[in-house]
Amino acid sequence: MTSTNYALLTDLYELTMANGYFLENKKDQIVYFDLYFRKIPDSGGYAVFAGLEEIINYIENLKFTEEDIAFLESKNIFDKKFLDYLKDFKFTGNIYAFKEGTVMFPNEPIIIVKAKLIEAQIIETFLLQTVNHQSLIATKAARINYAAKGKTILEMGARRAHGASSSVNGARAAYISGVSGTSNVLADKMFKVPSGGTMAHSWVQIFENEYEAFKAYAKHYPNNTTFLVDTYDTLKSGVPNAIKAIKEILLPINAKNYAIRIDSGDLTYLSKEARKALDLAGLKDCKIVVSNSLDERLINTLLNQGAPIDIFGVGERLITAKSDPVFGSVYKLVAAEKDGIIIPKIKISDNPEKITTPHYKSVYRIYSDNKAESDLITLEDESIDTSKPLTVFDPHFPWKTKTFTNYKLKNLLEPIFINGDLVYQKPSLLEVRDYAKTELTCFWDEIKRFDNPHKYYVDLSKKLWDIKQNLITTK
């Protein structure tokens, strides 16, 4: 949703550190930061990267206005020369990133920033905020879409989202991962995510009776009519009145696109009984839409019980990723240059999962028979001879190895900005969506299952692993 400047959308300590770097004459030191995440939401087997387009727009519009500078000066904590420096601030570094829609896994750098120290520090908050939110929603949507087994999913969570930006960007992220449309009109205008809707219970209640409400709606929207049938009694009133309206208003004009929607109750039972009534009335083409706090597990259960549902409207549990609402990506310093030499940096923690992987890196995906088998993180300047067998090992249990003989490699990191200039051709949203769909087909179903998914390995090259171990033991 970024079409303006968000320079001050940052944590205060980014600016106080930047002020300190400036005063310590470190503002121009070249550093390397990795953005990655540690844990897949919902104990899942994979995640989906989203948010790159908004990051690009943010970097291109990043500047400190006179009003921004005046506000910072009023805090009485920043040096005057530092504030003068911010007046001409512009990002001049390099950014490398996965393409939006890429399937990703913990601890691999999905964004690498190589830049002057202050520049790299100031952009941290916005990058994390954007990746954390949009990747969270894209990942949830992918799980929901997988559960639906080809049935249509509509995102309907605007009124439950955490604000306007969350709602609009969430609809876009969900669309990347296969959701067919949204209730959010602004997302349609901004991103061309198809918007659609039915009616509220208030529409039904405001008329003399349910049939009059259905008849009026069918008259005004004959080409896309969905009747909300659970305002009073789904099977005794709603479905019979919908059938009556379809036969009296829609069939005489040869309307083809109509449905009923059930928003409460036992969705399996009600959809089965509704299907019987519709078919008995000769309305086999009438679709059944359901909503009401749906998520991937409930959708999976409904379909396993044989519920004849055509379309799922998913709201709060998608747009807020209610079951696991924090994605948790982090942004860590991994190297700094001194006299043109890259010096690896590491963060060591009492929590092993928080120990960082140092140095300037590349990330390769290993494919065998068109299926992704493992990811390999290497030093940026390492080369791999694909004519020879490739042996990888578990970085936590290095005696566990696997050797590939017939394989292909794909470098997942694309140059986005070089010396502050955008060098990446931004794809359309439809292209991102198609890419995400193709990506997901490259992974085994065992990785996509909801319970105890197969672990996909992210390995380190021997050179990188040795550097990391040496830094751990010498610190």
- Number of helical stretches of at least 4 residues: 17
Shape: globular
Q: Structural class from helices and strands?
A: alpha/beta
Q: What's the total count of β strands?
A: 21
Order of strands, main sheet, comes to 13-12-1-5-3-19-20
What is the name of the CATH class of the largest domain? Alpha Beta
CATH topology tier name of the largest domain: nicotinate phosphoribosyltransferase
Q: Radius of gyration over alpha carbons?
A: 26 Å
The CATH superfamily of the largest domain appears as: nicotinate phosphoribosyltransferase
The largest sheet, given as strand count, sense and whether it forms a barrel, is: 7 strands, antiparallel
Known CATH architecture of the largest domain: Alpha-Beta Barrel
Name the helicity range: 25-40%
Uncertain stretches: none
Describe it.
The structure is a single chain. By secondary structure, this protein is of the alpha/beta class. It folds into 2 domains: 276 residues, nicotinate phosphoribosyltransferase, CATH 3.20.140.10; 175 residues, Aldolase class I (TIM Barrel, Alpha-Beta Barrel), CATH 3.20.20.70. It has 17 helices and 21 strands. The protein has a 7-stranded antiparallel beta sheet. A 6-stranded parallel beta sheet has the order 7-6-11-10-9-8.
